[in-house]
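Sequence of ATPase, putative (Yoonia vestfoldensis SKA53).
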Amino acid sequence: MTTSPAVQNDPSPIVACTISRDVQIFDLLIEDMESALGDSWGNLSFEDAAAFLAQPDARALQFVTIALDAQDEDNLQQVSDIITAAKAARIKVILIAEDLTPAALHRLLRIGGDEFVPYPLPENELARAIERVLTIDDTAQFSPTGTQFKATGTKSGVVIPIHGLAGGTGATMMAVNLAWELANIDPKDPPKVCLIDLDFQFGTASTYLDLPRREAVLEMLTDTAAMDAESFMQALLTYGDKLHVLTAPTDMIPLDMISPADITRVIEMARMNFDYVVIDMPSTMVEWSQTVLEAAHVYFAMIELEMRSAQNTLRLKRALQSEELPFEKIRFILNRAPGFTDLNGKSRVKRLAESLGISVEVLMPDGGKAVMQSADHGTPLAESNPKNPLRKEIMKLAKSVHEVNVTATADAKA
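Predicted 3D structure, token representation.
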């Protein structure tokens, strides 16, 4: 390894550089770079990188690896400038990220990162990443893994996870029906919607829509580093030619079999191909639950007016706040809420919210037997029972979400 490409005395040409705050922090990266390139690489600090990339000598570089960890999130603008300089010089960019939030990673990928590899580096993953970035088309759009997108992969979808805080609170019902309502919210310009079932063991989103489960889902999830837009879209099924669905795998798999990096790639791939990404979460908190929470624009938690929901809400609140995670993203939905004339029930809802220190912002009525019948028949409520009071409230929620998104998009363009 050399300390700077500008002072390289070895006759081997420099074809790549690592760029980091301190490359010694990423010792596995040093080993993998030496294994892949021998002495044909150099190292640059963030301070030196932008200046060097603007020099004619930088044109000889084939790619750079930018290594970051959580401490570098306060310095993203400098990193963004480095990526911009690299792309201007037609140099490929591989991001090596440790404990970087999905939002920060997404920003860097959108600016021009061609490939993402989590740190610590999986075995041989850097070599595969190098091979991919050196063979992809410069004119294509790129995914979070650096593999080629089709022209449709240019969106920045809204991520909406739905989490049931107790069994039977209706999380899957809400996820399926909210996704369907969003897909039909604007007949003239319907948004593209993707429903992802992340309950790998007992997920039933496919049952609610009468869709088969496919082996392709597990194949994709266990090798997300090789996932591109085509393989992702092929793993999806379509309901009613409007809603795309990533079902749970055919067989039960351990929830921790999929890593946070895998979940990040799947969510980012979905975001870049869809306007809305609705996620049906498992009730269990796992290693990648934080990944989904941080990627979410709004996180809906389903509860009921009973002790289980109250206890689990309090436990979730304590857990997130103790880890300084964004609890404020969570919006509580009370399913089977008391009706307008039930004054005693409305008083109980108020006491529940006050005792837990939360705000119950959405009240969903009891849809009755029609909800279970709809699920058994594999159709959304909008098709099986469009006048059901629960369906009407879900439609209102979808309209509210869509209006907020449209307004925010318009403000961002102004």
